[in-house]
Write a structure and sequence with these properties.
Oligomer: single chain
Number of helices: 13
CATH topology of the largest domain: D-Maltodextrin-Binding Protein, domain 2
CATH architecture of the largest domain: 3-Layer(aba) Sandwich
CATH superfamily of the largest domain: Periplasmic binding protein-like II
Largest sheet: 7 strands, mixed
Order of helices and strands: HHHEHEHHEHEHEEHHHHEH
Number of strands: 7
């Protein structure tokens, strides 16, 4: 970003996204809590987080901006800034249940600072009743045949990564040269989009206002459960594996309690109970075994090895995230 104001807006969106993610996740944690004391603690934290969201909305309003979040891949950045404590893995015996594909992720080799507890895939949802031509990837979505009938996540890094995938550019090599190469394709695509929505993109699909969406797998699963006409497509070009992780800030004063809480949530029965309430990918192998015969074990939440091989995690790209945002915002149709 070129100005202090742009940097402030970008950071504000990151914080707003993170706080809203907690508001969505904590009710499931409270439901799965095994004791009244733990449930009360989680509910107290949820109430505090909701107040933080209200305050953030007021900040957005005070600067004349729409309150919206932007997913940030913050773990690597926090590690670089020395803001996280290394985890005492001896205090996390349930870490043994973590699936191999969620160990040694590029942003935290060895899970030294973080423990994945859920993940989403970014993919395509198609209303098969209204779209008859096969949709296999991003190029099909933006062929021109679906102009004005598309909703996508309002996240510049995500949108840019789709063009990088089509152009066979490494998703984490976000150089000026690569962005310049992707910009004409992005300009063509963005002219076809009806709406940008990271909060409730599924509502436009449900209301038949659009026919195709590029959204997270949890939103896709909800659509598919409600209406069998909605079909999930993992883009042939590949996609983003967005991982939510637990970590402990270096300033934490209750480290032992934090470790005990993380270990509790890694317990197979607790992890499975959380998955029953939301169709996200569960990194816990033992929990998956408990869920194997249940609706939450749908393919969208349990991708095959071949599908997993096409997924990439985002790395921290530093100030280039500001250039990405500048390009996407400049190309959006008025």
């Amino acid at each position: 970003m070129k100005t202090l104001a742009e940097a402030f807006h970008h950071t504000l969106k990151d914080i707003y996204f993170a706080e809203n993610a907690l508001v969505k996740a904590l009710p499931n944690v409270a439901k799965a809590a095994g004791s009244a004391e733990l449930k009360s603690a989680v509910e107290d934290h949820l109430a505090e987080t909701k107040e933080q969201v209200k305050l953030l909305k007021q900040v957005f309003e005070s600067i004349g901006e729409k309150a919206e979040g932007e997913r940030c891949d913050a773990i690597e950045g926090l590690i670089k800034e020395n803001l996280l404590l290394p985890l005492n893995q001896a205090a996390l015996p349930n870490l043994q249940h973590l699936a191999p594909e969620f160990r040694n992720l590029p942003f935290d080799p060895g899970n030294v600072f973080s423990v994945p507890f859920r993940a989403d895939i970014i993919g395509i949802v198609v209303n098969s009743e209204r779209v008859k031509k096969k949709i296999a990837g991003y190029e099909d979505v933006f062929s021109g045949a679906n102009k004005g009938r598309i909703v996508v996540l309002d996240e510049p890094r995500e949108i840019t990564s789709w063009a990088f995938a089509v152009l066979d550019l490494p998703v984490n090599e976000v150089t000026d040269a690569h962005l310049d190469k992707a910009k004409p394709l992005l300009a063509k695509w963005l002219r076809q989009i009806k709406a940008y929505d990271s909060d409730h993109p599924e509502s436009l699909l449900q209301n038949n206002e659009v026919d195709i969406g590029i959204l997270r797998s949890d939103s896709a699963a909800a659509l598919m459960q409600a209406d069998s006409h909605f079909q999930w497509v993992l883009p042939k070009e590949g996609s983003h594996l967005a991982v939510d992780s637990f970590c402990i800030p270096r300033t934490a004063t209750q480290v032992e309690a934090a470790l005990a809480f993380i270990n509790f949530l890694l317990r197979p029965d607790i992890s499975a109970e959380i998955s029953r309430t939301i169709a996200r990918i569960n990194p816990n192998l033992a929990a998956r075994e408990l869920l194997a015969s249940e609706p939450s074990a749908a393919p969208i939440a349990f991708p095959r090895a071949e599908e997993f091989s096409r997924l990439k995690t985002f790395r921290d790209i530093g100030n280039q995230s500001l250039r990405v945002e500048e390009i996407i915002n400049g190309l959006k149709a008025p």
